Amino acid sequence: MRKTIAIAALTVAAVLAGLAPAGPAAASDTVVLQTLRIDEFTQTAGQSSWAGSAQNRLLGASWEFDGGEFTFRVPGGRDDLYPMTGTYTVEDDVAEFTASSSSSSANGSASADISGEIDLDTGRTAFDWNASSGSAAVVYGTGYATASTSGYTGEVTLG
Q1: What share of the chain is helix, strand, coil (3-state, %, to 5)?
Q2: Which residues contact 12 (CB under 8 A, 6 or more apart)?
Q3: Which of 34, 86, 87, 131 is deepest in the core (most CB within 10 A)?
Q4: Mean pLDDT for each consecutive 10-residue tract of the chain (159 residues)?
Q5: pTM above 0.70?
Q6: Torsion angles phi and psi, residue 77, rounded to 5
């Protein structure tokens, strides 16, 4: 397993730095990684019952890096918030990424964001992932409103 992670980290480093080796990896600047495992996971906001679902989505997540653009996809996420898109940069042995999305309707809005960094020597990826939503309505003169926020931080291994 350690050798696989080292190879994945080396490939990620090469592609993100624009130094892909000759062969199949050189045909595209795009690299798509999957979450191999969750190494650390802490819920920072939201109901504790949401943590299991968030971990399942994180385990199924794909992390796409393409020419400075970053896309984060999760299975079972809201269609109006996922995938999130943003940017990444590489400096020395660290790739920093950030992505966000938002959605609004006549009676509510929602947003999500993720940011973090990949240690290109180890493949370990630290992240901070947040989402919030709110809605309001007036029914027969009575106002109703709901709001929710979720937040997670941790480390995953990508490959």
Answers
A1: 20, 55, 25
A2: 31, 33, 65, 95, 118, 120, 123, 158
A3: 131
A4: 44 50 48 93 95 95 92 88 93 92 90 94 91 89 91 94
A5: yes
A6: -80, 165
How far apart are the C-alpha atoms of 111 and 129, rounded to whole Å? 11
**Residue (of 118, 129, 86) closest to 16 by Cα position:** 118
Domain ranges of the chain: 2-158
The token pair at 46 is 């939201």
DSSP string covering 67-133 = TTEEEEE-TT--TTT-SEEEEEEEETTEEEEEEEEEEEETTEEEEEEEEEEEETTT-EEEEEEEEEE
Closest-CA residue to 129 (of 107, 89, 97): 97
